[in-house]
From TrEMBL:
InterPro entries: Class_I_gatase-like (IPR029062), DJ-1/PfpI (IPR002818), Homeodomain-like_sf (IPR009057), HTH_AraC (IPR018060), INH-QAR (IPR052158). It comes from Bradyrhizobium erythrophlei. Keywords: Transcription, Transcription regulation. Residues 223-321 form the HTH araC/xylS-type domain. PROSITE patterns: HTH_ARAC_FAMILY_2. GO terms for molecular function: DNA-binding transcription factor activity; sequence-specific DNA binding. This is Transcriptional regulator, AraC family with amidase-like domain. It comes from the Bacteria. PANTHER family: ARAC-FAMILY TRANSCRIPTIONAL REGULATOR, HTH-TYPE TRANSCRIPTIONAL REGULATOR RV1931C. Gene3D superfamilies: 3.40.50.880, Homeodomain-like (1.10.10.60).
Amino acid sequence: MKADTQSKRIAIAVPPNAQSLDVFGPLDVFVEATRQSGGTAVYDTCLVAIEKGSVVRTGGVSLLVDKSIYDSDGPYDTLLVAGSPDFSHAESYADFQQWLRQRAAEVPRYGSVCTGAFFLGAAGLLDGRNVTTHWQHAAELAARYPAARVEPDQIYVKDGPLYTSAGVTAGIDLALRLVEDDHGRELALTVARRLVVFLKRPGGQSQFSAHLAAQIASETRIQSLQHWILDNLGANLSIAALAKRAAMSVRNLTRVFLGETGVTPTDYVEAARLDAARRLLEDTDVPLQRVASRCGFGNADTMRRTFLRRIGTGPHDYRARFRS
């Protein structure tokens, strides 16, 4: 991709009590891109408060922002909304919703980091779009804004001019993607190395592992079933077999499992098998067919199709890229 040498204006909207890393993670990527570009100011960044005033509380610090949405300012090339633990109040900021709708119609691209997606949703900017957010709040985002298509297991999602990222540090992945789109892969990788972050996670790489998901469920039967699945990936893990083991009907198991974990039993099984395969590919030289058998895929072709569908790359390329 040919680099674009024209400076781009990046605005990060900062809600009250914003998650500080939602702000500073992407901001540091853009600042470092300018620093690493040999003195060329490839990005002009600014922080914008969504309320009147120039100070925003972000976690344990007070942040002095450049301006608020009530101040006049020129056009932006990119607008990102940072997340906040207080995202449940997103719909109470009517002026911010109006400002977002106006700006979204003007900027080439806009988006959110983590729970910043709730503020876009309140403004009606997620309707009809594929989006993501922090895995822990994906189900709530889908329930609150049903016109959005929430993908809970994505690091970031691009849908037209809209870019949304998963939780907290995923904002760095999103910012690196924007740098690559703007100025080429070489600068993006240079920035990643300088910040000592993972060079580039695929957009479809899972936000969280099946082992972490197994810790989420509070319903004893579901939690026990999750752990059994993790220990028996080569077994018959069809929905009927899982329902029988849990002493539940298929319909009830699906309903309770989805409510507890945010995914269906079938999706959980596939994610667990994918997790196990990824670990073997990263840490061993086990042949692909044996990896597929150990992890319950049955054959290497089924495993390959699952990898391509869920993380956007095949097992062979995944091993080449992520092998320890």
